[in-house]
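TL;DR need structure tokens for one chain.
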Amino acid sequence: MTTATTSPAETEQAPPAARKRSPLAALGGQNLSLIGALVVVLALFGALNENYLSLSNLQVIAEAATITGLLAIVQTVVIICGGLDISVGSQVGVASVVSAMVFTGTGSSALLGMLAAVGIGVLVGVLNGLVIVYGRVNPTIATLAGLAAYKGLAQLLSDGRAQGYVLNDPVFVFLGRGKIAGLPVMVWILIVVAIAVHVMLRYTDIGRNLYAIGGNDTAARLAGISINKYLVAVYALIGVVAAVAGILLTARTGSGQPVSGSEGLELKAITAAALGGCALKGGKGGVGGTLLAVALLGALENGLTVEGINTFWQNVAQGALLVAAVVIQQRRNGERAVGLPH
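>> reply
TL;DR here they are.
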């Protein structure tokens, strides 16, 4: 009796066969659906308003979606490892206020303002992680508390109103209104963060460990992965990126905003991550799908605004999209309806 073996040459020939998938198959059904929905939205509002697809309006959509995109990317990371952060919008508000107040309080030092914002971002991010890991508090509850607490902190620091004026500083003006190679600087920042996070998730041991933690935390622990350290680090990363988003909000609006511009960002970020294919139970998701979902939400929101539709409908649409995304996930995973027989 002979035993079949696979030669090294045959082993090396297997990957090319796998790479013969068509580009459409490589994109995946989730991303193809998002691309199709984005095309429909663009075509619909383009037909209703001839200026909707103009270069200037497309840039407006891109700039408006940048802050949401940054938060959605890090929301993707934390969902992949089985967590959630509902406090990201409030973190943006705190960072925005701190950046502007330190800027004006130090004699117009943009660098110190930005460093202070990033510092406070790291602080609140690590605090979230420590409460979740060592306080053994559910991530949803812990960050829901953070949502209220950080919003209150931003209002206390600013006395509930916009603080400072930064548009007399070339650095803030460059961040908020500058362009590189025809693209707004804000969009370039989003691209850089997206590429960095994508590389981390797909091509490093850190990313593989994050997927492992979200997929099966017990197996990950038995494999020697320090889950506690990873979770604290992920929430610290969220704090840093939320601080960057807060700085961009300050640069875009010209002052530190405790609530305006940051309220509701957590819903947009979670919706984009869910629409992009993140499994809310963890272990699944990616940056590409999230960015497509951000583009879809941005195009829809702008289209409704251009058509003069009541902005309250945007909240209705976001909520409906989030529910739809979760329902689709449940159906794909074969989950039975709660309270109903198999």
